[in-house]
User: Fold these one by one.
Assistant:
Number 1:
Amino acid sequence: MRLSKTFIKTLREAPKDEVAKNGALLTRAGYIHKEMAGVYDYLPLGLRVIENIKKIIREELNSIGCEEISMTALQNPEPWEKTGRFSDQEVDIWFKTELASGGELGLAPTHEEPITEMLKSYVSSYKDLPLYVYQFQTKFRNELRAKSGILRGREFLMKDLYSFHATEEDLDRFYAEVEEAYRRIFDRLGIGDCTHETFASGGIFSKYSHEFQTVLPVGEDTIYHNADYSIVLNKEVFNDEVLTDLGAKDEKFEETAGAEVGNIFKLKYKYSEPLGLKFIDEDNTQKIVYMGCYGIGVSRLMGVIAEKFADNKGLVWPESVAPFKYYLVGIGDEGVKKCEEFYSGREDTVLFDDRDKRPGEKFADSELIGLPTRIVISDKTLADGVAEITDRKTGEQRMMSIAELFEKF
Amino acid sequence: MRLSKTFIKTLREAPKDEVAKNGALLTRAGYIHKEMAGVYDYLPLGLRVIENIKKIIREELNSIGCEEISMTALQNPEPWEKTGRFSDQEVDIWFKTELASGGELGLAPTHEEPITEMLKSYVSSYKDLPLYVYQFQTKFRNELRAKSGILRGREFLMKDLYSFHATEEDLDRFYAEVEEAYRRIFDRLGIGDCTHETFASGGIFSKYSHEFQTVLPVGEDTIYHNADYSIVLNKEVFNDEVLTDLGAKDEKFEETAGAEVGNIFKLKYKYSEPLGLKFIDEDNTQKIVYMGCYGIGVSRLMGVIAEKFADNKGLVWPESVAPFKYYLVGIGDEGVKKCEEFYSGREDTVLFDDRDKRPGEKFADSELIGLPTRIVISDKTLADGVAEITDRKTGEQRMMSIAELFEKF
């Protein structure tokens, strides 16, 4: 992409009401635009980051046999009334609206009810199970406060996966597969070593659920971890009873802040029973379907990664999610000419700063935008047959021969 | 994809309340699921069709320099109040909702206002123009009636492109480029020869806008065309004055029904003036930005294509939008074994009917699902070293050697 051709500009200052670092930096660097608190547009660079995150999640979920669909935001109250969750007392973050032809609708804050209801058309026998169905969908949550940038959205992008099983053992088996897939996802996103599977409360049908918490000072959750993070608990279950249960009574725990980037939950009969999702088993008796649900906050992840790795100069993207790999700057007529030559055919991996601006400004923007590698070709480096390569994360600089550059990058 | 592994099933009957052919067929074939009138989920096959349509549109728009973004559904009333369009009297299809922290919001039925407002952060000089920005976005329209399947959605997917220019001439130039791009898009979607650029009413600032109407008996628009479709008019502008204006007073026109799959509109100052989107021109004076907007109904297109080509056996997809190219059926142990061999490495283009069902059922489903080509390998054909190839559109059958099959497909 050519910076001269994109409408986005880096901004000197973030909007005054943007108090979160992720929101401020992503706005200044031209990734997002704030419509209102907790409601953000994705600009060209931001959309590429979102798509990169989705691609990694999609690949890992497809590899364990999950199928992608897309459900709607508008929600018929009926299935939600059967589980008691259409009530504003029960779920206090609904956005609700009215059909012109009469009747109240909700905007989906999650999709357990509609997918359970839908699968009644497709599941009748044990032969139809197990099933794993997911989507990337915009969720709506009417948060009273939303001051954490894209870490807490009123409108945000989520990956939600639902699994359907004939037996509890099969749910347990798949749950463990998702745990592994999630670890691979967070590893590939570059936050594997700071993201920890965390015990959280389980609800009626399960003792615990699990969250994936990324250690982050501005994270909204409080978590407790032992020395090597092999046992991590959300504050809500950090008590003597649970510690005894986990055999961790004698461990030392420290408190830290975490951002919940994923959660996995054995729902069992929670939704399938009130909604009547049943099947005929091998023994010819009718049984209720076991369910699990598994979320990942896609837009929140963009904020977490932005906030986690940023330094005082700007964003620092891991290669797997960066909107482009290379930030290209030419200085002098010959330098620019060589850059054009390099850019040609690499439009999808190179962000070419071909704007009519001073090198200093371009360097500052390259640091704000935070692509992994900056390539500078100037008349001077060209005279030596080299380009200057700068690693955004370490700041390390080295010279690379032009021949090697064209071959390797 | 293996049919045995997907949760979708073809259904004998469509829901009773599904009166539209596109809705009934796409539901029976497992492409969509109805949440309520005008609100549909996309199942795995349907999502693939949607993504294929998006890919074609994206490629053609990127080729004329457009940039992709993604804006929000939740709308702050402020910019809409400046243009008078937040009023339910002015725009009668709003879904509205309330923020928990106070204040009314709307769900975007279109995005002229927010994008014009947003670009005030990015446009200040003639050097920033022209700009072409688009998105694929879910739109919400509170239609009183929605009985046309996915031809008229209350929640639907639209591609909306907005262009911004320093001069009227530049708007005219780009408008013509979009006309060409739209023709290429509809050609590639397989509906080029039945989709006609149509004069429609223009509003305050322009004499006419243009629609792209696909001739379709159930289309909701009435259009008038001359013998060779070189002049086509929407009923709303089919009058003596306009015919005189177009020099078509002596032509013979016939009436037919059309489905509007796209529209293009010279907005000029309509939104930029009330919202104050201005720039400093080369002559150092402040001027108002010229705008154009260009829509394509993505989910409607899926319905139009489904409805247009379907026959009495089911769907008939053009190759460019079909969710898979080949429907693969094995008969007998050796036939199935050869199918497995063929399927391996072709998971993305082949829908493998590996279900435990009779061939007759599989053939019927292959016709309902409507992929372009069916491949049958049976023990019997295999003995002759061939596979049976059936063209879904023409019904034509031929034998192809197994070697050629592996090489060509």
Number 2:
Amino acid sequence: MTLETSHSRSSVGIVEKQYYTFAHPPELLVLENGAEFGPVTIAYETYGTLAEDKSNAILVAHAFSGDSHVAGYYRDDIEDEKPGWWDSMVGPGKGIDTDKYFVICANILGSCMGSTGPGSPNPETSDPYGLDFPMVTIGDMVNAQKALLDSLGIERIHAVVGGSIGGMQVLQWCVRFPEMVRCAIPIATTMRHSALAIAFNEIARQSIMADPNWNNGNYYGGSRPDMGLAVARMVGHVTYLSDEAMRRKFGRRLQDKETFSFGFNADFQVESYLRHQGIKFVNRFDANSLLYITKAADYFDVVESMNKSGPANDTRQNKIKYLIVSYTSDWLYPTYQAKELVKTLKRTGQDVSFCEIEADCGHDAFLIPDDRLSKLIGGFLNGTA
Amino acid sequence: MTLETSHSRSSVGIVEKQYYTFAHPPELLVLENGAEFGPVTIAYETYGTLAEDKSNAILVAHAFSGDSHVAGYYRDDIEDEKPGWWDSMVGPGKGIDTDKYFVICANILGSCMGSTGPGSPNPETSDPYGLDFPMVTIGDMVNAQKALLDSLGIERIHAVVGGSIGGMQVLQWCVRFPEMVRCAIPIATTMRHSALAIAFNEIARQSIMADPNWNNGNYYGGSRPDMGLAVARMVGHVTYLSDEAMRRKFGRRLQDKETFSFGFNADFQVESYLRHQGIKFVNRFDANSLLYITKAADYFDVVESMNKSGPANDTRQNKIKYLIVSYTSDWLYPTYQAKELVKTLKRTGQDVSFCEIEADCGHDAFLIPDDRLSKLIGGFLNGTA
């Protein structure tokens, strides 16, 4: 296996992005806001082999700026290409073991990584949708994933797993299609955004909308709102870190020099780092997608649905088994919010395991390779197989 | 006293902003960055009566966007005019008792509330300084306050009091002019910014500098960078609040409507509130002043100076008496940072009292009328009179 040798860090090897298009007129997708929309293309990737009885599928849901590329590499010819965003978790013998499971990850509706989003061409005009793209919800994203699974002939998934906005999709799966889900692993997530989380999203949106290049969303032919998007990313990035992690990673260390510039250059490493993160982001992400996805996250609220899903309403033999994971230093979706989810599920008689992982690196902890999370997920999946 | 009757909430009555100008060429102010600068005008206000022996002065240092208007009213004719920003603390019989003390507050150098700042006319060109304004530090702000006190013939201050960046000025007074300070009350502050605090300031600066109207600081004749400044204020505002306070104040309550707009209007009250705070701020504050003051706060670092100020180096009979105050929900300058200050001062043999106040309203707690803080400060001052 030369592929594995040349990419020794990853054991999934070379993977390929695939596309599924549905909701062709007149059979449009009915969105949660009542609008009808289509066609919809969903970019997705799969890893491992689907069992003959199609019982071994695991759906991985990605976070805000993620994509379908969970593990492995697209090409064999670029030495330093990075593997997928959760390569440490997904692969043969890993937490989500591709020797056992058929793993699927789909880019969310509204994104800009292959699935239909505000930057996609509007078939009616051939121009990008811009703000003519409809407001999509986490529920709509899940409906699109359901359509993809239908197309693959998968009637039941062994597990749905995801962190952050990926975790919201996990919860949405559980309330919308409970009969299709055997295990659910929502990580570093919440049943609904707090005012603080909405506030940071709103600041990010306002930053983009304050950029004259944004031009009410019509910028695809010209200059893009790079400045606004970069600031928006800086805001988001800080919320994904933690006070402790930033002290450890940057402290007050200076960038290139020994003394202050006494000007508005980046004196501190943390300033350079944030500027770099902002610039890097504009090269890979679409500002309008940020607007749509953050709004979907703000709208998301499964508290009522979760409260309704109790034993009285759920007489199935095989109820969903939940593994809920939070991180001590996550201040975007703090552990108290995970505990509210645990309490809600326990009150309604669900099968819940909960683990708070001690980590100083904030909300993004679930994306950082960590044996504890891999073993936790691996063990949980083994126990439910 | 008709003044007091018509402004029953304030007992200081009508006050007047005063101005002191110094550092006339060729006797310029030498700044910490080595540059010489002048003339410098400092706007200030006083409350109460200076004792004949000039021993009862208390200097109040204001926070980032504050001004010299601590208490009372400027006019008697506007019923709904708001009193000064710390009217609950400063007045006859209040925590800082103007029947006993002569209270002075000076607008900081670099600000836009009467003291010389980047929006002031450069005498060489008659145009506003813009980025030709020199980078000033917390130390420079304190040197300007010292010049003001000299002009008033005050050789020793009974106390220097301030929260946030005001607290930094308090600490700077203690390390720079310890022989002039009898008591120091730094509130909700830090010896130096953490990477997190620098990060939020940098995001605010980048937001302003991303606004094309900012025009490298030259906007005074034309359109101002209102959009960038509004977003910067939104960022700052969130850091002054807390998760708890925002849950209590806003939660997920909707603005004006019963359902989601499924668009980019402000659906949630917290969104409207932040937008309102942003818009309100651009009407009263100068974007360049934000750049300069946040940079001064980021540069501020008295850890080394504080460590040097020990019994070995301080043989005075009357050492400074410190009262250090922090708030449980302040995540900008959390209590652990106040405790570092306490430890540093204790290690060097200083006279330190420390109080952490239980409050859910975040960093801005010290600005909110609270009997606990008033009694704490009043009691401390009484004990040292």
